[in-house]
Design brief:
single chain; 117 residues; alpha+beta; 3 strands
């Protein structure tokens, strides 16, 4: 049986993400237990705002938490895979993960905090 290969459709996205955060990478990949905190902030849809003269006013019923796709486990995997071997030696070093998906009225972003244990 020949060697197969895995196609990664997000390879370019991971590369782009890593390029943006590489300036904050440690001098050498961490090789100790890691606690990873990630916050994914998504833009609010127009339906969260009023209409007409209130089009910039957030409705009282607008949710805080983002419960639509993408799934949080896929987002976590994306970050872990993108930062693997640059921020940490191997993602098996990650012992604790906290992740949150929220809406933002500002710029969408992904915040990653790495705490060594």
């Amino acid at each position: 049986m020949g060697k197969g290969f895995n196609y990664d459709p997000s390879k370019n996205d991971k590369s782009d993400f890593l390029w943006q955060v590489k300036k904050n990478a440690p001098p050498a990949p961490l090789d100790r237990p890691i606690h990873l905190k990630i916050t994914f902030s998504f833009p609010r849809p127009k339906s969260h705002y009023g209409t007409g003269k209130n089009s910039t006013v957030l409705k009282a019923t607008a949710p805080i938490y983002h419960t639509a796709r993408p799934d949080i486990d896929n987002l976590i995997k994306f970050v872990c895979d993108a930062l693997n071997t640059v921020y940490w030696k191997d993602d098996s070093c990650i012992c604790l993960t906290e992740a949150l998906k929220v809406y933002t009225d500002g710029t969408p972003k992904t915040e990653v905090e790495i705490i060594t244990l």
